[in-house]
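Two proteins, back to back. First:
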Amino acid sequence: MRTTTALLIALTVAGSLCAAFAENGLDERSPFGIVCPWTDIGQTGARWTRCGAEATELVNWPGMEPAKGKIDFTKAENELGGIDAREKLFPLPILGYTAPWAGRVPGKIDSPPKNLADWDRWVNACADHFRGRVKFWEVWNEPNIEFFNGSIADYANLVKTASAAVRRADPSASVLMGTAGVDLDFIRRCYECGCGPYYDVISVHPYQWDPTFNDGWFIEKLTNLRKLMDSFGDTDKRIWLTELGWATSDKRITPDIQARLLVQAYVTALSLEHLGVDKIFWFCVKDWGGPGYGIYNDDSTKKPAWFAYQTMTGQLAGRPYMGKVGIEGARCYAFGPSRDENDAVLCLWAPGMDAAPTKLDVPVAEYAAYSISGEKQTLKLDADTAVTATPAPQYVHVPVEVAQRLAVMTDRREFPWPDPAAQQRPSSFVTVMPQPNTERPWLITGQHGVLRLYVHNGQAVAAEAEIKVTLGSASTTARVKLGAGESRETGVSLLCPIGTKPGLADLKVSAKIGGEEIAPQVTSVRVALGPTVEFLGNSYLERSMYLQPDPKSGCSESMRFGSEWTYKLDAPQSGSALVQMDVGANMAQPWTVSWSQDNATWSTLFEGQSWHGLHEGRIDGLRKGSLYLRCKGTDEQFASAVVTFVP
């Protein structure tokens, strides 16, 4: 075996990249996207741009409707003209945030709208104005973290209302809902709130921060998302990665490392078509004052990532994924011929920080190869010649029959292009809202409880809603009259059958609003022995109870990280508290959870030295009033809590 690198016969700098993307990339099926438009960004080969939500003018409710009823499309039209006519990009506008006059909390654009009729009217106006020019609409940006100060049920109502409003104006348009990270707990609750029939594409942001790409974590996250979607019957819906990126403001991430991480993440995502992964948007176009995620510097000069993006699209746009090539010490993915080319491309890199010699089982021949920045070389290879795989991906062109022999394809699965017109999407909805100060509705076993129902009539005429709610052997029916486009909250009393075991139970909801049957939904309720507070880490409710002595505490998807923080809950009665917490510490370091009623004298509730997991305990002698729970440890993690107050 020859241990030298592949024999270099000639090295030239490509004067221009493969022109295949110029034709193939214009297809709206292109997977290549970027967050925020910018002059010349179309030259990268990106075909999609995500915009709006205060970052840009398409569409930004606070900027478009500064006063109720006065919508100005001028700036949005100007932006769309640049995106479409100049850069040849397809837009993905984010519907949000809330106009200051419309918020539940006046002046706060991260607050849910006080009146969903205002949200409905604005979304409908946007979808009508841009009908045929905007085909996909995303509902809010990262609603599971600080960008949305409302509950999961509030977000579900935004999704459902937006869905109905978009489709009244443009039945061919599609609606996205999504999260920061890949927040399975949040998405599961959205499903339980009945979002399934109202969205077409899921949007997630699988960020990583290390200077090496953890493809195992990446694939596992998206595989688990696919399983969750399938479990709720959404086997045909696609997954879009609408943010993904690394920042050069992190001293570990040099511009060259950022460039290679971009390609590694994109190519790995392209290999996940069997999961329904369909589009990938880099965050973001420009550094914007220091965060460092851009492929342009603040002064608009191009970073290595810009050229890596352009090379990647030039090499791969229009090429179908063929499968993964199993070679020692490297990652290698095969892509077939495009409409303009009759060869295949192997994208190859070393997964760590160091180069690794490896071998490709190819016949003796000369092969064209391109570096991450588009430099061309001719390689003389055979099965015994070692190829140096570097952390910077390279593209090797081989005959199609060679790629077919080498590539192993995961079982294919077809995901139809979203066609809302072919599916009857409901215009009206019912959402079971949790009681105040908890994230999941609760009932006390053997007692009657009042469930809050939020009902929306999305039809153009007045209608009566008939709603049936069932839990085990118990059921009840509510009726409410609604005007055209009207929403209303109503309460319904339901007996939680005696003998129902504490824990999660399925609450079945069916409804008919006017002549429209609403798809039956199953939401989980907490059956408990007393009033219950339940919340996820880093949720809206968690933030409302959160006291933070450590300014360095961090946040993530349904997870709180930090060294010390405290929650303040209201104990509605004297007695005891039954506490379940998913808590622990990174790398199984020491951690504690303590409780207090005066925020001064503390007693230990849980302690350990472990990764986060479920722990159960009991607090006795509790007085009505405040209950404090303090988490303290080395890089402690908190995922969820359920606190039930019993006499």
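And the second protein:
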Amino acid sequence: MGRLFLILGFCLYLSIGHAQTKYPKDYFSNPLEIPLILSGTFGELRSNHFHSGLDIKTQKRVGFNVLSSAKGYVSRIKVSEWGYGKALYVTHPNGYTTVYGHLKKFAPKIESYVKKQQYQKESFTIQLYPNSNELTVNQNEIIAYSGNTGGSGGPHLHYEIRDKNSKPMNPMLFGIEIPDSKNPEIRACIAYPFGSSSHINQSNKKNILKIKRLKNGTLTTNKITAYGKIGFGVNAIDKQDGALNNNGLFSLEMTVNGQKVYKHKVAIFSFTESRYLNTLIDYERYYDKKQRIQKCFVEPANKLSIYSDLVNNGYLDIKDGMSYTVKITSKDVKGNSSTLIIPIKGKKDSILVKNKKIKTSHYFKANEFNKIKQRDITVAFPKYSFYKNLPFDFKYKNNIVTLHNPNVPLHKSFTLTFDISTYPKEKRKQLCIVRKSKRGKLYYSTTKRKENKIYTLSKKLGNYTLVLDTIKPKIRALNFKNKQWLTKFRYLKLKISDNLSGVKFYRGEIDGKWILLEYDAKKGLLMYDFNDRKLIGKEHTLKVTVMDNVKNTNVYIATFYKKDK
């Protein structure tokens, strides 16, 4: 009997363990009441990170009901000028959390809770962590209204499902249904030789392979000749029904003569690893050509957890006299796929086109701390700032610091420091560090101060210099004038902007009391809702203060008349 219970217990343990690895298909419902059409998919390649959810179109409009996908409680509320803008996090009894971003506003009970905290803290941007019994919600309860806040490029709902460890997971694996009958498209292919003796078509440089479609629909390249250690990468996109957007893949795999040697699948990842996406793609080509080539090999610095079925990390060792057939297959979540065939003839040959050796005054090892000091500037790179060893180009001429080339990605921030002790004291406070683009445009780089030095932390290489910012921000009323009656007005609207270092701080007051000015940073729009607070009397004074990042300050004062009923 004891043996029987032991066997039954072991079987129960296996069944529970197996069940926990499955995605609950019928637990989460759609977060919108309209048909779900995507402008962005989970795992899509974005700037320095994977996309962590679904971007659901809202018909180019805002204000659609956003529904809680399951019963739970609001565990986090974040209001920020960029990022997800207004965002809600709902934790559910099964341990998962759903996230809803770029919201216009929250449902009344949540909106009231948030505004109370904003007025107490006198801050539009805020982050709150309600207790589990404060803001409970039911499945399909309206929790917010869709919008375009934060870093959104247009009206849509950003929707996520995260596990108990806050790792985002693909919502389409949970039964969130998105119509998709289209195959992914492989649009470009590059072959990479590694080492001085390896070559492709007698070239030691990476080769762009021409893709052609045969009459039967098969994608293929011309036969290439190669020798030694090589790898491949492809540019591929996916589309869903009802949309023209170029979205991301679910998986990419490669076989050689029928043997699987590479596969990656983006079903789940952690935010801490997401920046390693820069090793998945050919970053140089992305920066120079705006084309994302996904490598079908795993470089040593790559610590992504998305890989499986790796043989020699996806690298191929091509032998003289051998023939190979490489197949690269891209898939979406629905199983739609497309395959590219690359025929290879192994041939040890003379190399006619060779990579040029780069000569620089510095050579950085990725696993070491690297530092350069010249005259009044110092630049320091922590260990593992770079993904590989690098001949590093450095110049300091005409007050411009050249840090190699921005087509090389960084994993950690470097510190660039300027000694400004030679500048007049009255000007030091208005100095800031900027990055200068190829076209000469200046981008403020967050500047910090310590004694007679200023410094910045950045993950972008390129040209940096010091500039003097003496111009205060601009403030302009949009929908009212000084000494105007505003009795029938619901909102006050103002436009703010800064010429260089950017807006750091703003504050609004009516009759000396702080008011909640909601800030749309994309448009530079400040907006106050008169419903927030009842005004006493009929004559009122509005005061708006705006300061930039070097503390140039402007103050706008206006009188208006409004008598609350």
